[in-house]
Amino acid sequence: MVYKFYVTVKLTHTKEGHKIPTNILWEHEDGEIEDFHVTVRDAQNKASTKGGGIGMRYEIAVMGKERMHITYLFYDEIDDLWFVENKHAPDMGKPPY
Question: Cα–Cα distance between 88 and 38 in angstroms, integer?
Fold first, then answer.
């Protein structure tokens, strides 16, 4: 089973019209918002086969509290939403990275 987590994304738009994510905002259950800087390693027009969604798949490096994580960030062009996937549900609103 794969869990799908919707996130708020800060991004830069290039003059060519590309979207480049720079930060992921994770909202905890208590309302606190954590801001994670991300570095895009690759971007491809791909569907999320596990979580569903059609659009861009970004391979990103996220600096977590203890170490750097490599994961995928998806932009669903149909629903105009950003999400990450993870095999494990986060505990009590903790981010999956």
Answer: 20
